[in-house]
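Ticket #4471: structure export looks truncated?
Reporter: QA, pipeline team
Priority: medium

Steps to reproduce: submit the single chain below to the structure queue and open the exported record.
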Amino acid sequence: MLSIGEVSQQTGVSTQTIRYYERIKLLPEPKRAGNNYRVYSDSDVERLRFVNRARQLDFALEDIAEILAFRYQNAPPCQYVMNVMTQQITVIEERIGDLQRLRDELVNLHRVGLTMPEDIEMKQCVCHLIKTGQSNEDVNDE
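Actual output as written to the record:
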């Protein structure tokens, strides 16, 4: 049997997070030692490692709970997991697209900012471009 500190060390999950997972039922309520301290088994550690890895893959806590429910019912969660991964991939691809657009906009603003003089009134400087969302072409048209 392991203490919560030992489980935390073995899994890299903080004791606060372990307690939180217990409150939301991702981990079963632990057994208690004579001193009323939590004690955990190897199966608790294995389950916590699974939860932690799923979180690293950005699975939602609700999805993890559903996967664990399949396991508890001795039903294979494979199709459910595959569906969750498909959704995750779609979300990640959308995020990547958003980040690429953001990068392109910042690169353009930086390029334009390098060509602009310091402007105390901030009417023709990069700060103004950020505020107004203007591109270099818009500035040159004025």
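Status: closed, not a bug. The export was complete when the record was re-opened. Leaving a note from the reviewer for reference: The first strand starts at residue 31 and ends at 32.
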